[in-house]
Write the structure tokens for this entry.
Amino acid sequence: MSPELGTSVAQRLLRSKIPARLAFVGPNGDPHVVPIWFLWRHSKILLCGGAGSFKVKAIRKHPRVALSIDSEMIPYESLRIRGLAEIEVIDGIPVEYVECAHRYYGNQKGQQWIDWVSTYTTQMARISVTPDWVQALDFRERFSEIFG
């Protein structure tokens, strides 16, 4: 595991409810960025999506991805990750997606979301990203002469 992942900035952002921004290459070679729920488990970023979704199809073709998790207040903190994504198709709703729904929406609304998603999907994809490059940035520290 990269030492950068052990920094206080990285740990704060990995535990946050801020959506990650997932960057990937589309099937035609164009870049794409989407906000996405995530979990940090066993030294991997775990994401979920529809088994037949555009992003899953694109990542199958081009498994190198990048993620950014950025604080929402100035001075910013940013965790940038690059790595190889692996996709596993799951029947039903992956437990990680359920956990994310509760994490981001709270228990009641998260369960309502899962109940709604369950009515129209039979399979989802679990996307596991193993980081091979990491950069944690703390702009308060980096520009301490401005932000003190």
